[in-house]
Every structure is written in C-alpha cells, then in structure tokens.
Design a protein that fits this description.
The chain is α/β, with parallel strands linked by helices and 192 residues long. It contains six helices and seven strands; from the N terminus they run βαβββαββαβααα. The protein has a seven-stranded mixed beta sheet, with helices on both faces.
Length: 192
C-alpha cells in the first residue's frame, strides 16, 4: 500500500491558506477518484483507494493530518506503523515558500528546507528518503514567512495555483506506480 499525505492545518480558518496546498491536492485527487474522507486513523482524516495497474491494482491511503502543520510527523509515523507501510511507499505533498508560485518539483530525498511540517515528518520517521511533491507558493517581501504561509492567494495567483493542482493530479498516478523519474520529466517548465 502507498501512503500519500498532504500537509496542511485543520479547521475552516486555514482552508484557503497557502500552507494548506497539500490538503488541496489530496482533496482534489480524492474527488477525482470519487473517494471521501470518513475514517480518522493516526490522527489524520483518511481515505482508501485502488489505482488500476497492468500488474494489478495498487492500494493507496490518502491522509490529511489533523495535528496542525508543525506536528504532522506524528500522524505520518502513526500511519506508517499502523499500516506497516515502508518509507519507500510514502509520498508527501506540500507547499514550498522558496519556489515561485505554481512551480512544481518532485524529489526522492532531502532536507526540510525550513518547512516545519516536513521537518516534523523527517524527525518522527527518522529518514529524509521519501518522495515529495512540492508546489511553490512564492514569497512576499513585505510579510513575515509565518504570516505569508497563512495568507490566502491573491486574485492574480489563483489560476496559477489551480493549474498547479491540476498538474499535480496528473503526476500522482505516476508516483503511485513508482514511476518517479517519469513524473519528474513530465513537469512543465512554464508553471509559475
């Protein structure tokens, strides 16, 4: 089984914020697959699905930690342990303030880069070797980073972000199938 976790903060006040981009992608993927989040396991809202594949369906678990961003790692560790999922089958989706708005990157490993949610995950699971799908949310020189990530997207950024979420939805199946290099090669250079 694959574990696909989107990072964000629970609760209505955070729904439209930049920091909830991981939740947006997971919600959009669930909607596209006609799945709903009903179960709460490992301090996360979860939904199970099956991806059709020539070698047989691939089971996956979508998860949205309800621990708040800076403690996301606890939820990830609980899910990995409960379902006995190896770290090699774990995919993390999140926002990246150091990338231009709408830019997408896929990495197989790496440090947290100042992202406290990712830092929490790395600390809790004891590894930085897992697949990440990162979407840029840009910076604002007039705001502190903590204020910026909890702000909503401007009107001129909304279409860029919708396009980035759509592109992410086309990349997730490749990541589920383990075709990571192919997914990396399909990322367009013109987003953001």
């Amino acid at each position: 089984m694959k574990l696909i976790v989107g990072l964000g903060n629970p609760g209505r006040p955070y729904e439209a914020t930049r920091h909830n981009l991981g939740f947006w992608v997971i919600d959009a993927f669930a909607h596209k697959q006609d799945l709903t989040f009903s179960a709460k396991k490992g301090e996360a809202l979860t939904s199970r699905g099956h991806w059709p594949h020539s070698d047989g369906a691939i089971d996956y678990l979508l998860a949205k930690p309800q621990t708040f961003m800076n403690r996301s790692g606890r939820s990830v560790r609980l899910l990995l342990d409960y379902y006995k999922i190896p770290i090699s089958d774990f995919i993390l989706v999140y926002d990246d303030v150091d990338m231009d708005c709408g830019r997408i990157r896929i990495r197989k490993k790496g440090r947290a880069g100042g992202h406290r949610g990712v830092e929490s995950v790395i600390t809790e699971i004891g590894s930085d070797t897992f697949v990440r799908l990162k979407i840029g949310i840009g910076k604002d020189a007039l705001k502190e980073t903590s204020d910026h990530v909890l702000s909503n997207f401007r009107a001129d950024e909304k279409q860029i972000m919708e396009d980035a979420v759509d592109q992410s939805l086309s990349l997730l199946p490749l990541l589920i199938e383990g075709r990571i290099d192919e997914a990396m090669n399909r990322i367009p250079n013109n987003l953001g």
